[in-house]
């Protein structure tokens, strides 16, 4: 029996994973693609966006949402049972695409494909790492040398970098292909420099391609034939497990105590907003003031039957009307994601003002 290829799409919060997958679904040309989506933050925004595709290639039945935390830490409880349920269905998909949360380490997920009940049926076609070209060019994932030094002074055993730079390095390290997205926000020189830098940091032979709005031909994205689960060499994660005493344990059920302890998420609910542009400015102000990494959700706009989708990556805020509320409650709900220590009350108050 031929194995079903599975593509793992990883990349930091807001890099453009959902956008890339949405574009792929819109251009699936009759391929049946099953999606497994893992989101950090409990609003199901990505699932909603992908279900809105309305195409028979991505019926809701083919979308599985894993929302019990980060996929790399819930492999046994969540991911494996979901894969088994997917594989037990009579109509096997042509391809499986897995969107990890922006905080996930891809390595534990790829290793899960070595589990016997999966390995006989599915192979990892490729790990696609989506990079926010603008954020990386601005140095958002650069190791913060001052912070690293302070940590080292505090604890000799620590040789890790910042949570952001570590995650970024691990996601790059796991890649079979790197997609430098958001090139529309870069000039050509910046894009060239970033591609050159990432080609140097990635494993040998990894292709680095550039996109805007995730426009990548489906033939480039799928069908890489990497069999990543059988080729783990050089994909190792960095030094994440310093809190665990048993971290050399290769037990598959082992819980990786890693960087998402350094991040947190919560939901803010408020009443209708008056005007999308004004609210977007207000949101951008709150993001700057509180150093929020990612904010997304849906808003009810006074007098408008359509639901407004709001997406912010750092202080860049996008809004668009996506669908009528219909019978759904006209609620405004926003999920906020940042490094641990966010002032929930102040942020909620500022977003509700
Ligand atoms: N300017 C610009 N914006 C983009 C591009 N790709 C995605 N975006 C926007 O960036 C925001 C985040 O995109 P998503 O596709 O949701 O990112 P993601 O990686 O799935 O985000 P998480 O699931 O939260 O980790 C959205 O507002 C997108 O419209 C791009 O190439 N250029």
Topology:
Blueprint: E1 4-10, H1 17-26, E2 33-38, H2 45-51, E3 63-66, H3 75-88, E4 95-99, H4 106-112, H5 116-119, E5 122-132, H6 133-137, H7 145-154, H8 163-173, E6 177-181, H9 188-201, E7 207-210, H10 218-221, E8 263-270, H11 276-290, E9 294-300, E10 306-313, E11 316-324, E12 332-339, H12 344-352
Parallel strand pairs: 1-4, 1-5, 2-3, 2-4, 5-6, 6-7
Antiparallel strand pairs: 8-12, 9-10, 9-12, 10-11
The structure holds guanosine-5'-triphosphate.
From the structure above, extract its key features.
globular; CobW; 2 domains; 7-stranded parallel sheet; binds guanosine-5'-triphosphate; Hypothetical Protein Yjia, Chain: A,domain 2; nucleotide binding; 31% helix; CobW-like_C; 353 residues
Overview of the structural elements:
The chain has 353 residues and is α/β, with parallel strands linked by helices. The protein has two domains: 4-257, 3-Layer(aba) Sandwich (Rossmann fold), CATH 3.40.50.300; 262-352, Hypothetical Protein Yjia, Chain: A,domain 2, CATH 3.30.1220. Helix content is 31%, strand content 23%. The strands form two sheets. The chain has a seven-stranded parallel sheet, with helices on both faces. Helix 2 (45-51) links the parallel strand 2 (33-38) and strand 3 (63-66). The termini are far apart. Mean pLDDT is 85; it is low at 241-256.
């Amino acid at each position: 029996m031929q194995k079903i290829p599975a593509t793992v799409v990883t990349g930091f919060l807001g890099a453009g994973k959902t956008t890339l997958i949405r574009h792929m679904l819109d251009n699936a040309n009759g391929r049946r693609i099953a999606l497994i989506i893992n989101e950090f933050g409990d609003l199901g925004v990505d699932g909603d966006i992908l279900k809105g595709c309305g195409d028979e290639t991505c019926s809701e039945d083919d979308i599985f949402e894993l929302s019990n935390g980060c996929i790399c830490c819930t492999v046994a409880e969540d991911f494996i049972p979901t894969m088994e349920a997917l594989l037990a269905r009579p109509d096997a998909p042509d391809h499986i695409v897995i969107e990890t949360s922006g905080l996930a380490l891809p390595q534990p997920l790829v290793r899960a494909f070595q589990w016997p009940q999966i390995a006989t049926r599915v192979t990892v076609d490729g790990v696609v790492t989506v990079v926010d070209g603008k954020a990386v060019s601005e140095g958002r994932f650069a190791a913060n040398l001052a912070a690293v030094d302070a940590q080292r002074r505090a604890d000799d055993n620590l040789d890790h970098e910042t949570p952001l730079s570590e995650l970024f390095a691990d996601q790059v390290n796991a890649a079979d292909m790197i997609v430098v997205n958001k090139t529309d926000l870069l000039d050509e020189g910046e894009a060239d420099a970033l591609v050159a830098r990432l080609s140097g940091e990635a494993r040998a032979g990894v292709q680095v391609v550039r996109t805007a709005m995730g426009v990548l031909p489906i033939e480039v994205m799928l069908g890489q034939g990497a069999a990543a689960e059988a080729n783990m060499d050089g994909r190792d994660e960095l030094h994440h497990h310093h809190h665990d005493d048993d971290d050399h344990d290769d037990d598959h059920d082992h819980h990786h105590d890693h960087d998402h302890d350094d991040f947190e998420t919560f939901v803010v609910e408020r009443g209708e907003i008056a005007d999308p542009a004004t609210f977007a400015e207000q949101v951008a102000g709150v993001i700057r003031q509180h150093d929020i990494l990612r904010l997304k959700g849906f808003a009810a706009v006074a007098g408008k039957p359509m639901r407004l989708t709001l997406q912010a990556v750092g202080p860049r805020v996008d809004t668009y009307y996506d669908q009528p509320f219909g019978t759904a409650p006209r609620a405004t709900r926003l999920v906020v994601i940042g490094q641990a220590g966010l002032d929930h009350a102040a942020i909620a108050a500022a977003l509700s003002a």
